Amino acid sequence: MWHNVRLLNAIASALVALVVLAALAAGGHWLIQRPVFTLKAIQIDGDVSHINGPTLRANAVSRLKGNFFTIDLDATRAAFEAVPWVRHASVRRVWPNQLAVTIEEYKPLATWNDGRLVSVDGELFAANLAEAEDEGKLPEFAGPPGSEKDVTARYYDFVKWFAPLNMKPEAVTLSNRYAWSVRLAGGVQLALGRERTPETLATRSRRFVQAYPQVAARWGNQIEYADLRYPNGFAVRAAGMRFLSEEQAKKLATAPVQKRDSQKPAAKPAAPAKRSQ
């Protein structure tokens, strides 16, 4: 072995290469640990109407570890996306000691029945309700777990279908049996039932919209409830309507009806003439 010049040269070259690599690694480690690469600033861009500096510092910045070279960008993005109101965050390095973070906020559309909010894209998120309703009360959504996107899509349909009445939905509910109900502005509660076909809800809504002016002309703002599940019409309940109990309805149905004789009463027969004696 010691007489093999080629082998000795190869071993020597390998040792030199290892020494050089070790020196480079040590130098690189020393270099990236210099204070000049310590993160000094984080630039925040994007829609941040509901996010402020103290919130970011408390929920995201305090969790960041590393400097310009060693910080984990995926972990940094996850830290920012854990902040309330943040839907998506993108993170990039800015030479030599900064980060640039672009934030996309959730846009609130409604409240969900578990206390969370629903975004305009049908996504659930947790945030302060008072902040979400700073421009007005949000509609109320409710449905089985995992149905938030379906309820959101139907809400947009109901807004379009009831637009001719200038009555926006204030609440949309999908029951555990997948039956739909809507409360319109003004308090009118509508029962639309289950979707038998793709056109079921649209047909029932259009029927109500077409007939509502005549119904409103009779009852005005007193309409409280409408059941739209009938095949060719709907039933309405209004304040001030008098409802009979089942017993009262039966009595009314079985009461005898007095008939009037349309003919004149027959004339009494004339008394026989007396004979003259």
From TrEMBL:
GO cellular component entries: cell division site; plasma membrane
Gene3D superfamilies in UniProt: Cell division protein FtsQ/DivIB, membrane protein fhac
UniProt cross-references to Pfam families, sorted A to Z: FtsQ_DivIB_C, POTRA_1
Annotated Low complexity bias: 264-277
Keyword Cell division: yes
InterPro entries: Cell_div_FtsQ/DivIB_C (IPR005548), FtsQ (IPR026579), FtsQ_C_sf (IPR045335), POTRA (IPR034746), POTRA_FtsQ_type (IPR013685)
Swiss-Prot/TrEMBL keywords: Cell cycle, Cell division, Cell inner membrane, Cell membrane, Membrane, Transmembrane, Transmembrane helix
Example of a GO biological process term: cell septum assembly
Region feature Disordered, mapped onto this chain: 252-277
Keyword Manganese assigned: no
The POTRA domain, residue ranges: 37-106
Localisation per UniProt entry: Cell inner membrane; Membrane
UniProt membrane topology term: Single-pass type II membrane protein
Family: Belongs to the FtsQ/DivIB family. FtsQ subfamily.
Subunit-level organization: Part of a complex composed of FtsB, FtsL and FtsQ.
Chain's role: Essential cell division protein. May link together the upstream cell division proteins, which are predominantly cytoplasmic, with the downstream cell division proteins, which are predominantly periplasmic. May control correct divisome assembly.
Protein's UniProt name: Cell division protein FtsQ
Source taxonomy: Bacteria, Pseudomonadati, Pseudomonadota, Betaproteobacteria, Burkholderiales
